[in-house]
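Below is a filled-in request sheet from our internal design queue. Each sheet records the structural input a requester submitted and the sequence that came back. We keep these sheets so that new team members can see what a complete request looks like end to end.

REQUESTER: design group, bay 2
PRIORITY: normal
MODE: inverse folding
CHAIN LENGTH: 180
BACKBONE (tokenized):
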């Protein structure tokens, strides 16, 4: 029995790692409010154990990282901030994104068009992101090919049985109508 459990857990982790892997990512956070002109930037931070999709190179559960920043700001400074977390797989890429975003809120040209912003910086000592375990690992692991086939076959059989039951019900109803 324990051998079977070990094999199944190994197959499950192989399925997950084929689609996603733990990887080092770089990220920073940004927070703004529609009620005032104060915006917050975090430092660029390195997360060693972030889950990234192999195919799309997208950070799993990236909204959870934004929620970390939102909760921190609600606790320390101001509630009701809209927070985003931007990530990249290389330090060079995240620095480009950081500079571009920062220029939007500090450049004079942008300020003339959209008004001035009060920019505040949160250092790594103030706020630190923590790695997030993806929900698909906690809730539901992806199915193997055999499991998908078995599930599809079971669904077809259930639909066929339901259809046969409905046909039998109609047959009985017709027989009752003829008796009347």
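RETURNED SEQUENCE:
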């Amino acid at each position: 029995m324990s051998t079977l459990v070990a094999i199944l857990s190994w197959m499950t982790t192989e399925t997950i790692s084929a689609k996603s892997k733990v990887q080092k990512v770089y990220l920073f956070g940004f927070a703004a409010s529609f009620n005032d002109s104060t915006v917050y930037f975090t430092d660029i931070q390195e997360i060693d154990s972030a889950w990234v999709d192999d195919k799309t190179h997208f950070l799993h559960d990236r909204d959870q990282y934004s929620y970390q920043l939102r909760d921190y700001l609600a606790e320390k400074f101001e509630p009701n901030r809209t927070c985003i977390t931007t990530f990249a797989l290389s330090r060079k890429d995240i620095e480009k994104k950081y500079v571009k975003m920062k220029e939007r809120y500090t450049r004079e040209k942008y300020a003339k068009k959209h008004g001035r912003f009060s920019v505040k910086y949160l250092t790594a000592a103030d706020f630190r992101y923590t790695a997030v375990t993806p929900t698909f690992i906690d809730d539901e692991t992806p199915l193997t090919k055999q499991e998908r086939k078995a599930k599809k076959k079971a669904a077809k059989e259930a639909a066929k049985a339901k259809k046969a039951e409905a046909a039998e019900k109609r047959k009985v109803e017709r027989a009752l109508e003829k008796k009347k």
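SHEET NOTES:
- The CA atoms of residues 63 and 70 lie 10 Å apart.
- The first helix runs from residue 2 to 19.
FILED BY: M.R.
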